[in-house]
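Priority: medium. Attachment 1 of 2:
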């Protein structure tokens, strides 16, 4: 039988707050068993799942997407390196998109926050007559709309 850990031990080892662990459990991302005192006990392999959750969130996956990915893992055994590789192998494109998004944000820090807001005098140059608003609500150029030349 696999060694179990208390929620406090899992929080300390994973660096994730106990409240977040309870939330992950409510969402079905991790599981615990209850001992005779109804205290949560987690199998050690839960630490790997938590690391995966934290990493996937950093990549930009939603909790729903993370849950769908975790559902692909085998039941009844600790996931292997190969199992984790299969889950994460399709993320390169998503990471590249995120890098591009962050690069656009970095380049625009000194300029406008994406037009459509009309909050800065400079927007009259980048977004004359609020042309971006015709594409929809929000900072259209940050959302991926092309700026007119």
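Attachment 2 of 2:
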């Amino acid at each position: 039988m696999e060694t179990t850990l208390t929620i406090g031990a899992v929080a300390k080892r994973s660096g994730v707050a106990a409240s977040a662990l309870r939330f992950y459990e409510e969402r079905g991302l991790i599981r615990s068993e209850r001992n005779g005192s109804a205290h949560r006990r987690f199998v050690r392999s839960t630490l790997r799942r938590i690391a995966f959750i934290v990493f996937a969130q950093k990549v930009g996956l939603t909790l729903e997407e993370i849950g769908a990915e975790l559902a692909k893992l085998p039941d009844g055994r600790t996931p292997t390196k190969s199992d984790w590789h299969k889950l994460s192998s399709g993320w390169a494109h998503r990471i590249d998109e995120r890098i591009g998004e962050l690069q656009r944000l970095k380049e625009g820090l000194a300029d406008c926050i994406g037009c459509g807001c009309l909050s800065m005098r400079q927007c009259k140059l980048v977004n004359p007559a609020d042309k971006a608003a015709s594409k929809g609500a929000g900072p259209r150029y940050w959302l991926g709309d092309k700026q007119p030349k």
